[in-house]
């Protein structure tokens, strides 16, 4: 689902190609780059790390949940791109008085493909966007999930412990890989206790590189907590970014699935994937 909030006097950008865009969503910032919108993007967040050079050439308007309203106003945007999950509703309502805000809500692959198509329409990049969506769809059509489903806990935060549960884009990616989400009976991104994690008995614990930057030094804690689980450090962008990063996700997932299926005696708990 995608919708516009428009409290300004400006026309909606699907009627006039936007010339001054602010993106508050890292994965969609990268999508704008892929669609050749470099000359039209004037502002991004500090978490918009792709492409890296934009952090030096574009104005940083804060974080995804801590926007600098005055910086946004000073840029005189004619389109602001936001996301229901990544941005705060009250801040979006505030900036909607500055310019039309396109709010996306992406929870699965179909939502992502729809968003890419609509981005193409808004930016008058239909051909590029349609080709991108087609390539992503073809890539995922070639993805063969795990032959034997493996129960997994996908950890996104350390204190408190938080996991990706159902009704999230991450959950969809886990299902497409053939994993069973140990917390599929919970919604969104719940905080859990150590006891709940132990009781869920996951065969694998995936430690995401974002939003919490899990590293090798954190693996020992989880291995002590669940000595019979395999601990894997994973690239969070591959599981949670729903723009042009999806072009690379399938190759990443295929390698992960191959390694799991070929190695019954895994040593992922000692090595970063």
UniProtKB/TrEMBL annotation:
Residues 20-264 form the Fe/B12 periplasmic-binding domain. It comes from Hydrotalea sandarakina. Keywords: Signal. The lineage of its organism: Bacteria, Pseudomonadati, Bacteroidota, Chitinophagia, Chitinophagales. InterPro entries: ABC_Transporter_SBP, ABC_transptr_periplasmic_BD, Vit_B12_bind_prot. It comes from the Bacteria. This is Substrate-binding family protein.
């Amino acid at each position: 689902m995608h919708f516009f909030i428009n409290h300004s006097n400006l026309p909606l950008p699907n009627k006039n190609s936007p010339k001054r865009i602010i993106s508050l969503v890292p994965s969609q910032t990268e999508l704008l780059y892929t669609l050749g919108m470099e000359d039209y993007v004037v502002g991004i967040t500090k978490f918009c790390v792709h492409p890296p050079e934009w952090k030096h050439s574009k104005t940083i308007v804060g974080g995804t949940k801590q926007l600098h309203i005055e910086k946004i106003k000073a840029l005189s945007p004619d389109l602001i791109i936001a996301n229901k999950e990544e941005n705060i509703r009250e801040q979006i309502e505030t900036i909607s008085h500055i310019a039309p805000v396109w709010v996306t809500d992406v929870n699965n692959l179909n939502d992502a493909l729809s968003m890419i198509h609509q981005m193409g329409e808004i930016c008058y990049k239909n051909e590029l966007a349609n080709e991108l969506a087609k390539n992503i769809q073809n890539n995922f059509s070639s993805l063969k999930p795990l032959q034997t489903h493996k129960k997994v806990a996908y950890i996104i935060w350390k204190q408190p412990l938080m996991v990706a549960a159902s009704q999230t884009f991450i959950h969809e990616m886990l299902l497409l890989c053939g994993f069973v989400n140990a917390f599929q009976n919970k919604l969104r991104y719940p905080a859990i206790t150590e006891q709940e994690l132990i009781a869920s008995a996951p065969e694998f614990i995936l430690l995401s590189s974002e939003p919490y930057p899990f590293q090798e030094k954190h693996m020992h804690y989880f291995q002590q907590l669940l000595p019979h689980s395999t601990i894997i450090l994973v690239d969070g962008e591959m599981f949670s970014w729903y723009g042009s990063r999806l072009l690379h996700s399938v190759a990443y997932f295929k390698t992960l699935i191959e390694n799991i299926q070929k190695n019954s005696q895994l040593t992922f708990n000692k090595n970063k994937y």
